[in-house]
Structures are given as C-alpha cells and as structure tokens.
Amino acid sequence: MGGLAEKIYKHVPLWLQNLMISAYGMYWKRHRYGKHFFKALPEFIEREKFTREQWKKWQTERLRKLLVHAFDTVPFYKEKYTAAGLTRDDLKNFTLRDLPRLPFLEKDELRKFGTTTLLSSNREKGTFLSSSGSTGTPVKIYYTPKFHQIWNAAYEARVRRWAGVNYKMSRAMIGGRRIIPDAHAKPPYYRYNYVEKQVYFSAYHLSPDTVDNYVEGLRKHRPEYLVGYAMAIYIWAGYILDKKLKTPPLKAVLTSSEKLTPPMRRTIEQAFGTKVYDAYSGVEACGLISENRYGELLFSPDTGILEVLDENSRQVSPGKTGEVVLTGLLNFDQPLIRYRIGDRVTLAANQTSKAGVQMPVIEEIEGRIEDVVTGPDGRQMVRFHALTYDLPGIKAMQLVQHALDDFELRILKDDGYPLENEQIIKKRLFSQLGPVKARFVYPDELEQTANGKIKAVISKLANYETK
Description:
Number of strands: 20
Helix content: 25-40%
CATH architecture of the domain at 35-153 and 282-364: 3-Layer(aba) Sandwich
Strand content: 15-25%
Strand order of the largest sheet: 4-5-3-6-7-8-9-10-14-13-12-11
Distance between the termini: 37 Å
Shape: globular
Radius of gyration: 22 Å
CATH superfamily of the domain at 35-153 and 282-364: ANL, N-terminal domain
Structural class: alpha/beta
C-alpha cells in the first residue's frame, strides 16, 4: 500500500483493514501471475531435465546476451568493463570460465547506483522493491511486471511445487509487513486477504499470551500451507509446544530469510505436524536455492550463475565453504553481475542429487542468525529493519538489547545524517515494543561475529538456542 493508504489503514476498523489488504492482494496477484508467469512456469519445469552440458550451454548463451546488453545500455557496466579492458566483442564470446575477468558488483555500489546508472536505458516500466536492509540502508531492486512474473514462476516451480503446494492454494504468512501498526494491540493478531486466500500473521506480537490467538487464526481460516521468516515461525512453534496447543493440518511449511538450523527444523515440524522446506534467494532475485522432498538444497542454474569463492576469489571445490557471488540471469533491466550478496554457503561433497536432477547441491547456507529480542510484555521478535527504512545518512545500524526495556542503537552515519533521525527511529521502535529506553551511539565500526558478519540485532539477555 502507498503512503496515504497506510495512514488511512491505521485508523479504520478491522473489517475495512481486511478489505484494504484484499485490494492490495488483488494488485499483487495481477502483478505476479500473468502471461509471462504461465509461459515461464513449464519452461522452468522442463529445464529440470537438463544435463550439466545443457546447463552450461544455456547459461553461456544467456550470459553473453546479458553482458552485451549491459555493455550497450547500462552506463555503470560500460564504464567498469571498458576500464577493465573488455570490449563488446570480448563479451559476445564470453564463457563461464571467463567470469573472473569481470569486476565484482559490491553491495555499496548497488545501494549507490541501483536507481541511476545501474539501470538499463532500454528498461521496461517497473517499480522498485526494497530489501530488508537489516543492518542499514536497503538495496532497491527494479522489478518490471515481466521480470516479476518470471521470478514467481521460478519460485512456483522450485519452491512450492517441490514442497507439494501451489499458488492457488490457501496459505498463511508471517513476515515483515506491519499489518498491525500498534505495539499494544488487541487481538486478532492477523488479517485476511480474501483475494489470495491468505491469512497474514503479525511477526511483531508473538508471545506466550498471544499464541492462542495465532492458532485460532489457523483454525478459523484453515490455510493449506505456511510461509514466512524462519525465526518467527520457530518462535511461534516453540510457544505452541510449550502450551501444548493443537494446530490444524498443513501440507508444508516454507521458510526463508534466516538460517534454518536442525533444532529449529525439528521444533517447527513437531509443532505444525508437517515437513519444512527451506529456501534462499532475497529481493535481489539473482539466484535461488531451494529444498526438495529428499531434504537436498539445490541451486537453480536458470535463475543465475553461482560462484562460491575462497578468500583469494577462487572457486572452492565440493565440500568446501565460500562466499556467494551471483550473476542474475533473469533481470536485464537492472543487471546484477558478479554481485557479492554477503552470504556464504558450503557446497556438498557429493554433487549427485537423489532427485536425479543435475543442479549444484548445497550442503549448508550460512545465512543470517539474529538474536531474539524480548519486549517488556514478553513478546519476541528478530526483525527491526523498518527502523531505518528510507532515512538519510545511515550506513548501518545495530540494535543492542541490555534489558527488557533498555536498548542501545549503534549507528554508522555519514555526513548527510540529520539528528532528526533519532526521533523517527525512537517512534518506530516504540511502535514495535512500546515505550522503552533508547540510547543512540555513533561508533566508527559495528560489532562483528567470528566470521566477519555484522549482526543487526544483539541481545545481552538469555537467548533462543538455535544451533
């Protein structure tokens, strides 16, 4: 919903909020499922029969087309590739082995140039979607209706279909949208999208006192599957088991956005009585890893080219862990070529899939594991990316909880940071947790984990065990 609609939404009764969400759902349904979706879906399914040689040929042809297009129509790449000594003819004859000749696309470059020189001059009409930007300024990715539908076809073929569900089925969702604006709201803690048969649960009101209402929402609407943030679903599942609640049957649970550990998987499957299927992609939509019925994580080569690189930027061998570098093969309007997305994966030592498909097998995704924040009223959550959304002058932010009502906001700022940001961030924090102490500090760098990652959320309280 747009800014005005969101302001109106906060002040209207429940039944009207459901109607507004349904109208928004109608817009997105038309945006996601059209002629391009229905054309691309059988093509994704058919390519699952490809041999490794067929995948190599398909990717090479697609890569050459992408690189020439980027050189001709995207100023950012024209400048970079010319400076690297690459000509149009070089790119016309490029091979997958030549990829190391191309410079990386850094996340900071995507943030800085993503809405300007990283766009194709021949782009179709579209809109920008923002990432969570968990530790700072989000990236903005350009989606045309065509690209969005093709990406949704990939998700349908390799996520839903592999999990035994489809887009026509009713679903439950728990994600980042603030469907309930107030921190201290009354139940129900969910809203309903009649158009897509979707019951949307708040990720910001989960607590032992509210979980009964969440389960009530499942019983009332009887969704066929559940999709959402791995950690939010895990917290929900823990409360269900603690209170010995009974949930209606689901065909599958689809998780994303955070690392799904074995204990998290066991808890979710026990609580909801069905199998969990994990997936990894992101709003950048330049590569998809998804789980099949054998529990294997497979990379889809028709969504992007996956490089897993060591500290010397060399491809690692099976069984080894490295940095993920992706070249998206679907979005020609804002190409992401050799994009350092900031995550790491481990390639499986055995690259033979039990499903008989010849796609790269991933042993483990070293995704984000954030600490769980516990509010003064007992609610628990992990996502606070909305605190800094669209605020100027913020390179990164880290939220640190010292007590139930005591929070420290560590902000890496640049010269364009206005002090008015503090009041906006406080207001947003209070809208999630209620009135708490909020102290701002401006360090030169943020605390990192052992592997060099910046955690967006750090809790000094006893935390959920997910490892």
